[in-house]
Amino acid sequence: MSAVNLNRLNIASRIVQRIAWAAFLIVLPVTSFPFFPPAMGGEALVRPLSLYPLIILVFLVILPRLFNRPVSKSLLPLIPFVLVAIASSLLSLLRGIEPALGISVSSRVLRGAVTLFIGCTIYLAVSLLPETIEDLHFSLRWIFAGGILAMLWGSMQAVYVLHYDPNWFSLLEKIQNYISIRRLLPDRISGLTYEPHWFSDQILLLILPWSLAAVLTGHSVFRWRWRWLTVEWLLLVWAVLLLPFTFSRAGLLNMVVVVVFSILFLRPRKRRKTSTPATNLSPNAGLKHHFSLKRTLEICAAATLVILPIYIIGARNLFFARIWEYWQGQNKSLSGYIQYLGFDARLTYSQAAFNTYLAYPLLGVGLGNYAFYFEEMLPNRPISEVPEALRMITPEKGRDRLITSKNFYLRLLAETGIVGTVTFLGFVIANLGSALYLRLSEAEEWKYWGVASLCGMFAFSLSAFTFDSFVIPNMWIVFGIIAASMHIMARSSR
Fold it and tell me: Phi and psi at residue 394, in whole multiples of 5°?
């Protein structure tokens, strides 16, 4: 092949790669795409549309790059966890576990292994494809583009939440049938996802960390700027106003905590010129007091701006208003509050997962196998008190989906044991170290990615209490961007 033809082939390959990469990022919000063949998980709840462009990226970029170039060292801590998870799953095949709802242990283990493989592949794609700072900016802009589409669709759904119109709701529901396998709810918004809580998690992990960090640092990946106003400012305000319409109690609490935590601890301090003191008083005493007062006022204002829409919008939903109405009565208790909020079923799932871990502490029961032990590991209490859990263990025609723990940390303990949990936490700590290193950089560019990474890590640590899937892309996007940023920073400093 001539040099000219080879050059044309490389250019064409690069164009296809960029198109596939942009497509992968922009469709991230679509997590339960209805048109999936059974061989690709067509019967599962989580069916990311991004899997289609990801397949192209695997053969075009990821596999060649793994064999031809050195990869970031931040990828290495994930390998022990994958090995432990596979070993635990293979051992579970020897335990003679009876099928449940017509689903065998082998099929459950296979599905669990496939979801972990897809999650790791997403992480590899995000961590390997960006090679320069321009690539990072390109990637984040397309993530924002997908977020804008999701929030635009969510805003259209918010219209019928504020004022229900059956014709408008029917129109959106027909369109939603081509986006998700689940129908819309008339009193909550779901965006492009399966359910409202998934949408709140998307906003929390895919939009909030990167836009909030841009506001805190004054950095932007877009060229457009009008004085202090940037695209990220608009995205942040939009996200904060829209998320309450999901009426996700955990999502709203996580948003408030992430925003307040980021303003309090992650905002870079502006450098001040030193001056010679004129008296024996500390020269910076007044400045420190002013700075402390200003920061306190900013935090209070931010908390008010975040909480006020939640209260106003929540007043339209009687179930959601339980968050604050319970404490207005008498005989208040934490256990009663949890039951009043409807978290009793989730608490039961968590207790069953922890009991499973206690019974199999070393390597757990294998990926996906928590469901087979659920009834046996239920806490010692009348199951009739938790109707949702009772329905899950009662055979019903047409119900062929097994229960999950709905808590990522407890799923790790139950299905991979203390060994798998420790190895995964080692991977998380490695990413946390990379984020801190970026945050402490003197360069404003890397400081932004450090603040955003720490914000994303904190958002993940909170949201992991309410999700348990390896295949949902959110957390892998956060980890992948951290790895890519660290790798590019290390290369640029050589």
Answer: -100, 120
> Within 13 Å of residue 418, how many CA atoms lie on the same side as its CB?
5
Type of residue found at 437: Y
What is the residue whose two structure tokens read 């004054």?
218
Print pLDDT tens along the chain (494 aa): 567 677 777 788 888 899 999 999 999 999 999 987 765 555 678 889 999 999 999 998 888 888 777 666 777 889 999 999 999 999 998 887 877 767 888 888 888 899 999 999 999 999 999 999 999 999 999 999 999 999 999 999 999 998 899 999 999 999 999 999 989 999 899 999 999 999 999 999 999 999 999 999 999 999 888 888 899 999 999 999 999 899 888 888 899 889 888 888 888 766 554 444 444 445 455 545 545 666 676 667 666 766 776 666 666 665 556 665 655 566 666 566 666 566 667 788 888 999 999 999 999 999 989 888 888 888 776 555 555 555 665 655 545 566 788 899 999 999 999 999 999 999 999 999 999 999 999 899 999 999 999 999 999 999 999 888 898 999 999 999 999 999 999 888 76
Helices (H) and strands (E) in the chain, counts: 20, 2
Q: Where are the chain's structural domains? A: 3-268+292-328+404-492
Contact 480, 130 (CB under 8 A): no
Q: What tokens does 480 get?
A: 């992948």
Q: What is the pTM of this model?
A: 0.88
With H, G, I as helix, E, B as strand and everything else as coil, classify residue 100. Answer: strand
Q: Identify the bridge partners of residue 226 per DSSP, sorted by sequence position.
A: 229
Report yes or no: 480 and 125 within 8 Å, Cβ to Cβ.
yes
Rounded-to-integer distance, Cα 466 and Cα 47, Å = 19
Please state, in angstroms and rounded to a whole number, the distance separating the CA atoms of residues 122 and 475: 10
